[in-house]
Amino acid sequence: MSSRAAAASSRRKGKRRERYDDSEHPEEHATLLGDDTAENEFRDEEAEAERIPLGPERSSKSSSQDKSRTVPFRPPDKLRNKFSPNIVRNQKYNAFTFLPIVFYEQFKFFFNLYFLLVALSQFIPALKIGFIATYIAPLAFVLCVTMGKEAYDDYKRNLRDREANSARYLILEATPSSSSSQRDEADRPHTRSVPSSALRVGDLVLLEKNQRVPADLVLLRTSDHSGTCFIRTDQLDGETDWKLRVAVPVCQKLVNDAELLNLDAEIYADAPTKDIHTFIGTFTINSPPMTSENDNVLWANTVLAAGSAIGFVVYTGLETRAVMNTSHPETKVGLLDLEINRLAKILCAVTFALSFVLVALNGFRGLWYIYIFRFLILFSSIIPISLRVNLDMGKTVYAQQIMTDREIPNTIVRTSTLPEELGRIEYLLSDKTGTLTQNEMEMKKLHMGTVSYGFDSMDEVAHQLAMAFGSTTTGAQLATRGRRDMSSRVHDVVISLALCHNVTPVTNDDGTVTYQASSPDEVAIVKWTESVGLTLTFRDRTRIELQTPSGVRITFDVLDIFPFTSESKRMGIIVRDAQSGEITFLQKGADVVMARIVQRNDWLEEECANMAREGLRTLVVGRRRLTEQAYSIFKERHHQASIRLEGRNEAMTAVVADILERDLELLGLTGVEDKLQDDVKSTLELLRNAGIKIWMLTGDKIETATCIAISTKLVARNQYIHQVAKLKTSDEVRDQLEFLQNKLDCCLVIDGESLQLCLNLFKNEFVEIATKLSAVVACRCSPTQKADVARLIRKHTRKRVCCIGDGGNDVSMIQAADDSGVGIVGKEGKQASLAADFSVTQFSHLTKLLLWHGRNSYRRSAKLAQFVIHRGLIISVMQAVFSAIFYFAPIALYQGWLMVGYATVYTMAPVFSLVLDRDVNEDLALLYPELYKELTKGRVLSFKTFFMWLMISVYQGAAIMIMSLVLFENEFLNIVSISFTALILNELIMVALEITTWHIYMIISEVATLFFYVISIAFLPEYFDLTFVVSVRFAWKVAVIVAVSAFPLYIIKVIRSRVAPAASSKLL
To answer: Which residues of the chain have pLDDT under 70?
Structure first.
């Protein structure tokens, strides 16, 4: 024994990562591992002799890439400085990168780059046409608005970062005289307050109730003597239920916190990864060690729910799980902007071709290359800079309309560049907890085979329970009767439910009691047992106390607990009645696994199906009485299995199944309801009818997610649900894909592990099949997986994806949706809401946001964009006709204020009033969601509609110019006044023809613009001859020109409305 210890110590000197041994207790080796998936192995004496490293063996190769770490208590600064600083940084820019990145983001669009080049050309004298301000001002305006908005957004991010980084935390510190007087004060060690950003690996952090965990910590001690604490993980995995964490037992057993400072120990932690469900590490101590359990880690961004705790920092800053699961926001650009950018390229080609043709027709005389550039600048209005200004102003109007809508109060538009995207969504990716559900559980049903208790008959359960406890006969005596009476059966099932759980009652400061548990289902059941008279009053790891309806306290010793895992789908507990000494094995779990464990019956399967149809989460409860002898046999075999080196978990599970899980007495079936958000069912139905495919991505279990999919009507009635879980090989994946290919009408429910395997092996095939399914539910998804799914769908389908969530774990997914991310302000805080493009207060508001505001925004912007392009094209066509007739001279037809006025005061208000147009009223848009489906095809703004407007512009421009020339008097001044007046009137009439539903602002803008134009003629004598303008000749000539240019279009519009009416017009 001693030689082995010596060998161990010599190895330790050579390699710190090896574990320590102790000659007196070599079998008790302190190991520290993460969650269920971590390989937490116990060693017996023989195993210890082999000295197989746990966890660290994966990382024994020391390489520059190896980020695993072995950190001793009180580590030297040289070691600490190797690790990432604990600084939160979500900013997109800094002082040096702001201008370059913003300019790049703006000028990577051809649209803006074109205007920049045109504006710069005006500084060359030979190319100068008109006022420089007319070219520079609109571009500068657009850039200033964009830069201001980006700077403000980044400033807000910076404030949030500073707030997180400056949060104060207490760290334990050894002082020179820590051995004597200072430590005697209540045995509390010396602490120092430091900001979160100053924390380093190896610090011992003291956390208080409701404090955010600032870095990834190994839990060493808690204020609870059992060494447990609860944390809230809603900002990490989206689940609002509290998670139980256990302190390293050897540290918990220390007399006080101060002894941690003198501990000769070290912690090994594996390299940082994104996986929040796994942690591999060891705790090694050079004094009698103790074996530690799973769940010893507190991840950053979780919150300590109760008590206080001390943790050892193992990962900081960029290496924490929370940061590794957060993707940085990208600059989002709407599809409409990309489509207009494409049209701009076509228009540029048209401009260049037109310039080249005019110079070619002139035989390339003189400085023809200068003439080409002058023509390019003359025709630059073909791509009007005012288009960007109009669209950006339109987006602001849409955002304001959304935020002032009283039916969706407190809705905030955070990214005002994307309202049109809401009108083209084809995939909706939704979180479950807090988004579709309220995460408030309530027990609704208890079924006991021959009798069923609904929510309204629970007082009968309370009555039967009171009778059972009020009776002088014990439960054991009642059970021996030939046919147990009802009160005895109720007694058995209620007491089983009150014992078989992991719930801990915690007394708050105000005297109220809160139930803490890792599953809200369990809390709901314990609250229900309290409501019927059996109250959980005390719970630790060895004892449970209940209070009966008569006020008597009964105590049970906890002998063993078999926690719930996603593989086993059940949890069990062995308890001993402290009064009678009776030992009972109680178990509850999913019907799929419990059906083969409980005794044969004829009602369980049918009732489970009935409850599932109601959207209730079902749990089957069973029990088995054990004799002392049977329990001793089980305990011995279970211990033997627990000290095996290989296949330990499987061996322990086999012992439980072999001895305990056989022919359990079936006590009952519970149905728990997860309350849905308001109007979720009708919202999902409307969205589905609008042609939107809905995916639910959740961190929850498969069974829970399936229940919610049914209760929210995400899955249609009688629709087949195909569950895919625990896939391991490529053959299994291929078989599942083949099955789905032949059954595209089913709903796919898949777990995160299988999803990752599908994406790794058959990414394209899986996405192609999955995107055809009507509904997909992905369970046990990490935040990164959610974001990857969003990107994958968008990349593969090239369709618009909207992501909606309410927790910090949804931020990556929301930001990955570069189409539109919606955050819900909910119980999990505002993190998702702040990161989203749109913030709403409940899921049902999505209907109006998409089907009304989104639809209108897209239709209006498409119409506005095409009309502004038409406005630029028509004047360019007139310029081309004018130049062609007057010897191909690159001379401007309209100069100075006429050009400025045409793009602004003479047409801007009526054209911009199109942002208030609507084809149907709000009620019809929500009543017929199929109207939304029409928009997703992108026909409102397409190459077809663009070329139609191109033809209209060519016809009208040519008609106005040629007619003006035909009616040409004697002076050039007259052709300008006639053609320009006809052009303005033509545009006002065209706006009127485009309007479907008149708004008071539209009428005012049309009349006011016409009035302003008439008045301005008097102040522009260099362009208008007043004596000619007020004559009858002028009036009839202008009237004829306008009639020739506009009347045919009115006729075509009337014919089209009769022959091929729009879908919306059929409803009016």
So the answer is: 1-65, 130, 175-188, 237-241, 287-294, 327-331, 471-484, 566, 645, 818-819, 826-830, 968-973, 1067-1068
Collapsing DSSP to helix, strand or coil, 424 comes out as coil
Q: What H or E segment, with its residue span, contains residue 161?
A: helix 133-166
Residue where a domain terminates, one of 845, 880, 895: 845
What residues act catalytically?
431
Q: Is 700 annotated as a binding residue?
A: yes
Q: Which residue has the tokens 């999913």?
A: 590
Query: Across the strands, what pairs with 212?
Result: 303
Name the domain count of the chain. Answer: 5
The interaxial angle of helices 110-121 and 133-166, nearest 10 deg, is 130
pLDDT for position 725? 86
433 is in an annotated binding site: yes
Of 790, 813, 845, the last residue of a domain is 845
Residues 691 and 814 in one domain: yes
Task: Assign residue 288 the CATH number of its domain.
Answer: 2.70.150.10
Are 650 and 682 contained in the same domain? Answer: no
658 annotated binding-site participant? no
User: Is there a binding annotation on residue 153?
Assistant: no
- What is the model's pLDDT at position 188? 67
Q: Is 84 exposed, middle or buried (0-12, 13-18, 19+ CB in 10 A)?
A: middle
Looking at the fold, whether 890 and 1032 belong to one and the same domain comes out as: yes
Token digits of residue 432: 């479950």
Q: Is 588 annotated as ligand-binding? A: yes
pLDDT above 70: percentage of residues in the chain: 88
Task: Kindly state whether residues 733 and 779 are assigned to the same domain.
Answer: yes
953: in domain: yes
* Residue 620 placed within a domain: yes
644, 697: one domain: no
Known binding residue 809? Answer is yes
Position 931: which residue type?
Answer: L
pLDDT digits (tens, 9 = 90+) for 17-65: 333 333 333 333 333 333 333 333 333 333 332 222 333 333 333 334 6
Residues in the chain: 1068
- Compute the Cα dihedral for 660, 662, 668, 671 and give only its sign: positive
Ramachandran class of 1067: left when φ > 0, alpha when ψ lies in -120 to 50, beta otherwise: alpha
Quote the pLDDT of residue 330. 66
Q: pLDDT value at position 818?
A: 64
Question: What does the CA dihedral 667, 669, 675, 679 come to, rounded to 10 degrees?
Answer: -160
The response to whether 871 counts as a known ligand-binding position is no
pLDDT at 499: 94
Residue type, 174: A
3-state secondary structure of 179: coil
Tell me whether residue 536 is in a domain: yes
Residue 780 marked in a binding site: yes
- Whole-number Å distance between alpha carbons of 257 and 605: 53
Which residues, at least 6 apart from 442, have a Cβ–Cβ distance to it below 8 Å? 455, 524, 672, 673, 675
Residue 40 included in any domain:
no
Full domain range(s) for residue 138: 97-166
CA 804, 809, 811, 815 dihedral sign is negative
Which three-class secondary structure state does DSSP give residue 959?
Answer: helix
Q: Are residues 780 and 746 in the same domain?
A: yes
Distances (CA, A) of 781 to 765, 834, 942: 20, 22, 38
CA distance 74 to 652: 38
**756 and 888 assigned to the same domain:** no
Phi-psi region of 186 (alpha: psi -120 to 50; beta: other; left: phi over 0): left
Instruction: Report the pLDDT value the prediction gives residue 1027, as an integer from 0 to 100.
Output: 85
Rounded to whole angstroms, how far apart are CA atoms 169 and 311? Answer: 12
Assigned token pair, 764: 């394209």
pTM of the shown model: 0.72
What DSSP string describes 675-712?
EEPTTHHHHHHHHHHTT-EEEEE-SS-HHHHHHHHHHT
Residues 6+ apart with CB under 8 A from 772: 744
